[in-house]
Each structure stands twice: as structure tokens, then as C-alpha cells.
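Hello Y.,

Per our agreement to keep a running log of every chain we model this quarter, I'm adding this entry. I've kept the format consistent with earlier entries: sequence first, then predicted structure.
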Amino acid sequence: MTHSPLGQNRFRQQLVQARLPADLKRIARRFNLTPSGVPADEPITAGEITNGFLDWQERTVDRP
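Predicted structure for the entry above:
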């Protein structure tokens, strides 16, 4: 969503309106921007990505 024009606009508006660190945390949760715990320069194997997707898929059985 943060890559779409609508998402970028809403995200930007909320960042500008944020006054407290708690506001930034709330915005990060809303736009699913919480840190993954994996450094950006650390490679992730295709198997890890696939297993992560399959785990996510099992947890979201009520969604298409």
C-alpha cells in the first residue's frame, strides 16, 4: 500500500501530523512497517522466503 499513490499520500499525511514517538509507532503498525529483524544486507534464501510465505498462508486461512 505504501507504494500506491493513495498509500503514499495517506502515509505522508500521517507522518506530518505525528507529534509523539507513539504516533510514529502507530503509523508504522498501520502501514506494516515494523522492522523484520533481518539486516537489509543479509541475504535471504529462496527457501526461507517460501517457508515464510507458507507460514503466513497457513495463518490467514480466512482471507483469499
